[in-house]
Amino acid sequence: MQKRTAGIHHITAIVGNPQENVDFYAGVLGLRLVKKTVNFDDPGTYHLYFGNEAGSPGTIMTFFPWHNAHSGKRGSGQVGVTSFVVPEGALPFWEERLSTFQIAYEKITRFGEESLQFMDPHGLHLELAARKNGPVSKWTFGKVTPDVAIKGFGGAILLSADPESTMELLVNGMGLEKVETEGDFTRFKSTDDLGNIIDVKQSALPEGSMGVGTVHHIAWRAQDFEDHESWRQHIGSKGYGVTKIVDRQYFNAIYFREKGGILFEIATDPPGFTKDESAETMGENLLLPPWLEEKRALIEANLLPAEVRLLEEDL
C-alpha cells in the first residue's frame, strides 16, 4: 500500500542573533515560542521552536541561531521559500503590519493565489497566503489576534538540483498528489489542511550553501512510532540511505538526502512539547534533555540572552 505523509511536520533554518530571531517570529509574526532548548548535536547553540498555541505538527518553524556566522547562499538543494497560511481576509492586516515594522514585501500570484513575499532579518525567504482550510491559531501576541494569526505552514517551495527526481519522490515515495504545473512551478498536495502545498521549481538554480539565512531541512509527518518505523523501511526500500531513528525528545526523527540535494526528515507527531513542561509555560525556560542537564551552567554561560518581548510597535 502506498504510504502518504499528512504533510510538513516542521522546517528548520539557520539564522543569526537569537534575540533578533525571537523578536521577528514571536514579536512581528506573532508565533508562540513553544520550546527553548539547544541543538542536541551542538549544545552551544540554541534550538528555538515556534508554532501555534500548542506547537502542533504542521505549524512548527525551528531555528539554529548561529550568531556572527557566515551567510549561506540560497540555491538548489534547499527549501527556497517557507510559506505560512493565515485566515481568509487577513492579508490586508499583514500588509499593514509588515509596513509598520518597515519590512519590504512583494505581492505575487502563483497558481491563482495571491501571497506576500518578504525576508526575515537574516535573509530567509518567507511568504504569507490566505486560505480557508486549517484550524485557526488560538495564540494572541501584541496586535496579532486569532482572527488574523498565522495558522501554520501553507507549504514550501523546493529548489532541487534534480527536479524530476524530487517530484518522483514526492509522489511515489511521500505519497503527495501532483496537482498542476504553471510556468516554472509544479504543485503537489498532501492530505492535511496545513503544511500540505509543495511547489517544486522546474529550473535548477546554482547549488546553495549552508549558512545563516538558509533552511537546513524540511521534516515530514509520521503518525506515530509504529508508522515511523514503517517509513524508515519504506524510504530505505526506495534506495535512499536512511539514518537510524534519533530521539529528539519531542519527536523521533530519521533523515535522508533526496536526489535533488534537499535534506528530508520524517518526524513523529508524538510525544509533543508538553513532554517536559506544561502547556501554559512552554517556551519560558531553557529546557535540556537529561543527558545535558549536568552541563546546564556551562551551556547557559555560552548562550546569548533570548526572550519573548512585546515590541515598541505593539505598545
From TrEMBL:
Residues 7-131, 152-269 form the VOC domain. It comes from the Bacteria. InterPro entries: Extradiol_RC_dioxygenase, Glyas_Bleomycin-R_OHBP_Dase, Glyas_Fos-R_dOase_dom, VOC_core. Pfam families: Glyoxalase. PANTHER family: RING-CLEAVING DIOXYGENASE MHQE-RELATED. This is Glyoxalase family protein.
